[in-house]
């Protein structure tokens, strides 16, 4: 039977074919009594969304492999509203990692309450810095894409969809916690791999959302990284540990 079933019917263009990105009015048709038939795309003559038959674990694995079809299924053909909570949790993970590294570099072991409050404030500061860096990264991406492809971002809904895609594609930051818990000599290398994986996911999310080639998303990410690093340099000049 069908594993994960989105809404059965919608207006024209509400769904997308995961193969060719063509518009579709429905993903499947319900003939009652448990008889369901997956819709066929009129453009490529393939199933509009084969993933509605798949188990969520399989969909997640395909998303981790950065398959465009899995990204289209998640972004266009399902109702997932966890992007805000996921963003906050990822920022908390990043803030915790930075806070932990800050504590490791500190030699002060005084158990005084004032010291504990100062350390707690350090965590909130790391969260604020991580939030500002990610915001500047996204702003760099949006400005670049709006400048290069203004026809792709004409409406407010286009910006919202792209923001949702970017937030969802940062799920790789959740790997920061296992990297810290299973601390070993290769932790810095693991952090580099996690960063690269998140950037690849961001690139695929941009590509799928706006139906672009591979070059432009990476160019937008490059500009976003420049802006993000500019914020880091600003904090360093202010003598804030980042």
UniProtKB/TrEMBL annotation:
Supply the alphabetized keyword list: Endoplasmic reticulum, Lipid metabolism, Lipid transport, Membrane, Transmembrane, Transmembrane helix, Transport
Q: What are the GO BP annotations of this UniProt entry? A: intracellular sterol transport; regulation of plasma membrane sterol distribution; sphingolipid metabolic process; sterol metabolic process
Task: Say if the entry is tagged with keyword Cell inner membrane.
Answer: no
By its UniProt entry, which Pfam families does this protein fall under? Arv1
Annotated InterPro entries: Arv1
Q: How does it sit in the membrane?
A: Multi-pass membrane protein
- Is Magnesium one of the keywords? no
Subcellular location(s): the record lists: Endoplasmic reticulum membrane
Q: Which domain of life is it from?
A: Eukaryota
- Quote the cellular component terms of the Gene Ontology held in the record: cortical endoplasmic reticulum; endoplasmic reticulum membrane; Golgi apparatus
Q: What is its main location?
A: endoplasmic reticulum
Q: What does this protein do?
A: Mediator of sterol homeostasis involved in sterol uptake, trafficking and distribution into membranes.
The UniProt similarity line reads:
Belongs to the ARV1 family.
- The protein here is known as Protein ARV
Organism field = Panurus biarmicus
What lineage does the source organism belong to? Eukaryota, Metazoa, Chordata, Craniata, Vertebrata
Gene that this sequence comes from: Arv1
């Amino acid at each position: 039977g069908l594993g994960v079933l989105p809404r059965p019917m919608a207006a024209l263009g509400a769904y997308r074919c995961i193969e060719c990105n063509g518009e579709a009015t429905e993903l499947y048709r319900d003939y009652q009594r448990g008889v369901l038939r997956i819709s066929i795309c009129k453009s490529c003559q393939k199933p509009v969304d084969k993933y509605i038959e798949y188990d969520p674990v399989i969909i997640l694995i395909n998303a981790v492999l950065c398959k465009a079809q899995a990204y289209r299924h998640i972004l266009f053909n399902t109702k997932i509203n966890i992007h805000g909570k996921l963003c906050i949790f990822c920022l908390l993970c990043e803030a915790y990692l930075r806070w932990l590294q800050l504590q490791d570099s500190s030699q002060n072991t005084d158990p005084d309450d004032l010291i504990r409050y100062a350390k707690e404030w350090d965590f909130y500061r790391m969260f604020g810095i991580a939030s500002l860096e990610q915001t500047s990264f996204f702003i760099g991406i949006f400005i670049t894409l709006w400048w290069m492809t203004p026809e792709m971002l004409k409406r407010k809904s286009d910006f919202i969809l792209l923001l949702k895609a970017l937030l969802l594609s940062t799920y790789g930051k959740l790997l920061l916690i296992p990297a810290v818990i299973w601390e070993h000599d290769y932790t810095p290398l693991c952090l580099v791999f996690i960063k690269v994986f998140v950037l690849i996911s961001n690139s695929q999310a941009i590509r799928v959302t706006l139906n672009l080639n591979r070059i432009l998303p990476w160019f937008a990410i490059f500009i976003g990284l420049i802006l993000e690093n500019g914020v880091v340099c600003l904090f360093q000049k202010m003598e804030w540990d980042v």
